[in-house]
Specification:
With 129 residues, the protein is mostly helical. 85% of the residues lie in helices and 0% in strands. It is built from five helices and no strands. Helix 1 packs antiparallel against helix 2 and helix 1 crosses helix 3. The radius of gyration is 29 Å and the shape is elongated. The N and C termini lie far apart (68 Å). The relative contact order is 0.06.
Length: 129
């Protein structure tokens, strides 16, 4: 690096390279996310991306770019629905312990020697509050 401009152009090229990799990985992820495209067409797109990556990436974005966004949005909404269903399932199957059960658990800990009287009093007060 002999000058500021050399450094500046190096950063510009690094930025362009990283952005190219991001777009390439988005295209590859979209290829495998698409359930309508058969395996042979996916393989042809991958070969095309390996042999002529810039041209294949540009063609893919022009030809299938709108569908990329729709497929990603569908995947995100499906993922959110699965997460919400899981949270509802776990929340429904874990009943809140009654104060009596909490005090008895604390008493069992006290009897086993895991906690002392002061900690037992704090747990008991918290359970009854």
């Amino acid at each position: 690096m002999n000058s500021f401009m050399d450094w500046f152009w190096l950063m510009v090229w690094w930025f362009a390279f990283v952005m190219y990799l991001v777009v390439l990985f988005q295209i590859i992820a979209d290829l495998f996310r698409d359930r309508e495209l058969n395996g042979w067409l996916k393989a042809l797109w991958m070969i095309f991306l390996i042999i002529l990556p810039f041209l294949a990436g540009a063609i893919y974005l022009i030809a299938r770019g709108r569908g990329m966004g729709q497929r990603q949005a569908e995947q995100m909404s499906a993922s959110r629905a699965e997460t919400d269903a899981y949270i509802r399932n776990v929340a429904a199957s874990t009943p809140a312990a009654s104060p009596t059960a909490q005090v008895s658990e604390a008493k069992a800990l006290l009897d086993s020697g895991a906690i002392d009287e002061r900690e037992f009093a704090v747990l008991k007060a918290k359970a009854l509050a």
